[in-house]
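Morning F.,

Quick status update on the modeling queue. The single chain you submitted on Monday has been processed. Sequence for confirmation:
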Amino acid sequence: MIAQLLNREFLLDAADVIRTDLLDAAELIDRREDVGPLGKVTAEQVQAAVEELRRVTAEEPMEGLASGALGEPPSEALPKDDFAYMPREPMLAILQTVIEEVTEDQRPEAIESGAPEDERRSGGGQAVMSDRQLAGLELSHRDDGRRAWGRFEVAKPKIFSDPRWVLSGAVILWHRFKNDKTQFGGLPDGPIDIADDARILLVGDWGSGTKRACKVAAQMRAELDRGAGREQHVVHLGDVYYTGSKKQYERYFLANWPVHECDDIDSYNLVGNHDMYEGGHAYYETCLTDARFSRQEGRSVFALRSSAWQFFALDSSYANQALHGGQASWIMDQLDQNPGHRTALLSHHQLFSAYEDGAEQMGMDIQPVLDTGRVDAWFWAHEHRCLTYRAHRGVGFSSCIGHGGIPEYLVKMNPQKLLAPLKYDYRKKFGHGLEPWNTFGFAVVELNGRAMRVRYMNEDGNPHHTEELIA
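Structure tokens below.
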């Protein structure tokens, strides 16, 4: 990832410049002039992209400092979106992908190794997010201390030999997101049998490819080695950044995944919202065709079952924050067929949160399952935090494990009363700067018959919390 592309103001300025240039390009296409790479798109497709760029540059909110009833980080800290801006607007994530990939292809020498000095300082000498930056676009600071690079110019010759590749790439990917979504993989024929003492490693929002995400993978590998002799499974709860492209899956996800091809360890990957920003094609065609993920049989929905527990992995992203394809009815059938099993759900989006909105439509879709009173646990990601919750909304225990690879600001670093229904909020600070960045990590679910133990590990390999679900 490139530092400038993780700065909100830089990206919005880039979006505005690209919008203006696309308006000029549309006129050239209409006149049937030589437009180079833009010959791959139509004037109508250009106009659709222009309209979306106009909307997002006008409406995209600033994330700023983490907020909430527990209080704010130190007033001297800079907003999160100066360092780690991961927009949930698909078009902005598409621009991050296109600018980065065109730069790498056309002007790799324009990318310098090393994070900007202020990012290293805020991380205690380590890069919080990125260890690469664009050369010649030097970091400066405004009077209020905010990061700034000045207005971005797509046509800057030291970065792009032909900026029309950026323009055409943005239009093509926006068209793919809107009109060329991959086919839904369908529901599984049946569950995958697992051992009564199986171990399941869970990590979410890990697919960033950053050094810290790779550090999490190394600790997961060490945990798998310690568990040798027991049946083990590894599940990613979704999101490969920026847009789940083929290159991002190959470079950031598959190349760093902690399970090796020779291992007798099964791997699984839920689809996240970022995985769908190019229509979900690489999720199905690149990730799920990798031999390590073969147990999913090309489906985004799957189930694991021991003699006591059943885990249902949901697709909450094909239809954004909703359950597509009859998933809730499928779970109800499984519950009817196995009345004695304890039940856990896995998803990318959260049912609820102490800090953000829950996935409202998903909640309505799953309500018949919750009404049975049989959902003992639910693990999700999407929010880049490590949280556990007491019984709430028909779920006995729930946990957010979305702190695998994207930095987030802590709401409070010192102990404070937790917002209901929070039970645990991991608040270990990363680095020594003013910015209160979170510490990454993952979870280890250990089954013992009808009992479940969940251990939470950080990016340094240290345990920091344990939950017990008694038989």
